[in-house]
Design brief:
Layout (H helix, E strand, L loop, with lengths): L12 E2 L5 E3 L2 E2 H8 L3 E5 H18 L3 E6 L6 H9 L3 E4 L2 H9 L7 E3 L6 H10 L3 E4 L2 H14 L3 E8 L21 E2 L4 H11 L3 E7 L10 H14 L11 E3 L17 H19 L5 E4 L3 H4 L3 E13 L3 E6 L8 H5 L6 E2 L9 E6 L8 E8 L7 E4 L21 E5 L2 E6 L4 H5 L5
Bound molecules: pyridoxal-5'-phosphate (PLP).
Length: about 425
């Protein structure tokens, strides 16, 4: 039976014993095989999101390129899949770059972002031959000039400009306003100074401009405002020698976390970005640059489901019923960090009627370790399996060893088979870098 829920992976079903099935695998079998808690990624959903981005953008703008924003979740298996689907990659650290390179991802389709890349990271990126370094500060320009001079080398770069557009996301995930650590601000004159400095550089070739507003962005209008603001700001620099060969309005496309709050389609994001880009390019006299977009969450978010087992249940009559799970803020910090909201189903009895309001708490020693506050669910008992959908982005990638809990394993499922793409961390893994 198809599981009618658009925030779960595309392949989600319910089988004859009322269990949730992902990628053809009964989740209770997955829990038995790999233990609890467990993250499951559905390959079909992952590939279909990649395909949808590539086709929606290239149908509307032939010279376009989709980069997967690796910060959402990176691992060699994921790197292979996004590569096979024809995406490039955006990395923000030496670590992400190392995983990409070691997975065989071609350096010439990697863009390196970040507001404070270290000298070591920049040297590593240059040595590996990354396609573009997206410069975020004057400090970075100085570091790059110095490194390139010492190697008598050259590098294609973009710069990140802040358009001062509010995409109405949580303040902690809003990145393109004036009061942000990211990018060169237009208002302060920094963006103009950075462009002029780079146009004079002998070693840095300014091939394009990037901005990123924040995430997850449920509205379309901020993209139009961002494109308009940046292209209007850039227009006078054409006379000064700016040759805009690439233009990137970043990522930030929303996904459905709650079934009553679904995002616009990828087609609508593509339309607003492409239409506004074409309009202002032609109005302002630019040649057509390559268009770059950087989806992260919208590629992996829906593909991932977090599975937990119910343990202790504490009822405070008239106040709250806490149902504790065997994971929590160590594997998904988003509710504690951003007040992120999720839904859940009971994966071992999916069709039972919801009958009581409970709070799904984690196992970490923090009162703030709550995964879902006040959710109506069927009556839960210890041993039940709770599935939280839309957990593929920024959950495993932000996971920690807080309380020295090992991080959960990750299984990739497809057509009834499952393989671990990350093993469960062990106590030994956690102590191997410590010393007496
Ligand atoms: C520069 C840049 N590009 C792309 C992204 C990806 O955002 P999302 O995962 O919401 O698509 C981010 C996220 O922080 C970012 O900083």
């Amino acid at each position: 039976m198809v599981f009618e829920n658009s925030i779960f992976p595309i392949t989600s079903e319910v089988n004859s014993v009322d269990h949730l099935v992902l990628g053809g695998c009964d989740v209770t079998d997955l829990m038995e095989e790999f233990g609890s808690p467990l993250y499951v990624y559905d390959e079909v959903t992952l590939r279909s999101m990649c395909k949808e981005f590539v086709s929606e953008f290239s149908n509307l703008y032939s010279e376009s390129s989709v980069l997967y924003a690796a910060k959402a979740f990176l691992n060699p298996a994921i790197a292979n899949i996004v590569r096979e689907e024809g995406l490039g990659m955006d990395v923000v650290s030496g670590g992400e770059l190392a995983v990409a390179i070691n997975s065989g991802f071609p350096a010439d389709s990697i863009y390196f972002h970040g507001n404070n890349k270290t000298r070591d990271e920049l040297e590593y990126a240059i040595q590996e031959g990354v396609s573009r370094i997206v410069i975020d500060s004057f400090h970075e320009i100085d570091l790059l000039e110095d490194i390139l001079a010492s190697k008598n080398s050259f590098q294609d770069v973009m710069i990140r400009i802040s358009p001062n557009v509010d995409p109405h996301t949580h303040i902690a995930t809003t990145t393109g306003i004036l009061d942000s650590k990211f990018g060169f601000a237009i208002e302060t004159g920094d963006a103009a100074r950075a462009i002029r400095q780079l146009l004079k550089s002998q070693r840095l070739d300014l091939v394009g401009i990037h901005f990123h507003l924040g995430s997850p962005i449920f509205e379309l209008e901020p993209y139009e405002s961002g494109v308009r603001t940046i292209l209007k700001f850039l227009q006078p620099f054409i006379k000064e020698g700016l040759n805009l060969r690439e233009f990137s309005p970043g990522g930030g496309f929303a996904i459905g976390y709650l079934s009553h709050k679904l995002p616009p389609s990828i087609k609508s994001y593509a339309q607003v970005i492409v239409e506004s880009t074409k309009k202002y390019l032609s109005e302002l006299g630019f040649h057509s640059p390559k268009l770059i977009v950087e989806p992260g969450r919208s590629i992996v978010g829906r593909a991932g489901v977090a599975l937990y087992t119910v343990g202790a249940i504490k009822d405070i009559p008239g106040v709250r019923k806490y149902v504790s799970l065997d994971g929590g803020m160590g594997d998904n910090i988003r509710p504690a960090l951003y007040d992120a909201e999720y839904e859940a189903v009971i994966a071992n009895k999916t069709s039972l009627e919801n009958e009581e309001v409970v709070t799904l708490a984690g196992k970490y020693c923090e009162s703030g370790d709550i995964l879902i506050r006040d959710i109506k669910l069927p009556k839960l008992v210890s041993g039940d399996i709770v599935a939280i959908p839309a957990s593929g982005a920024y959950a495993p990638s932000m996971a920690s060893n807080y309380n020295l809990n090992p991080r959960p394993p990750i299984a990739l499922v497809n057509e009834g088979s499952a393989k671990l793409i990350r093993e469960r961390e062990t106590y030994q893994d956690m102590i191997k870098t410590d010393k007496m």
